[in-house]
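Slide 14.
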Amino acid sequence: MIHQEAIEEFRQYLKKENHRITPERFEVLDFALDYEGHFGADELYVKMKSNNSNVSRATVYNTLELLASCDLLSKRNFGENKTRYESNYDRKSHDHLICINCGAIKEFTEPKIEKIV
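Slide 15: predicted structure.
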């Protein structure tokens, strides 16, 4: 799926911060924004490889950090000693419930919580 506004926002961020603008970074952006739910860097890398991408694992890791820095992704740690990401692009604010038995993550919206935080 094409995310033209996100592409332009990322391009401007890279330019402003003096990072290289490469097709590989935009490929990572596209896969990250299309990913359903929360994901780790390795999960995204595997998904990209299964779609015949030639992007390196290092590029995936580095680009995810850049995408989190420019607020296109949220970077989360749900207590499993593993960084998870999720798209901020075109999404409503929400919170997370985490099952202590299986680790499943459930998103929810509660206006009363939003007022507190």
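Speaker note: The domain at 4-91 is CATH 1.10.10.10 (Arc Repressor Mutant, subunit A).
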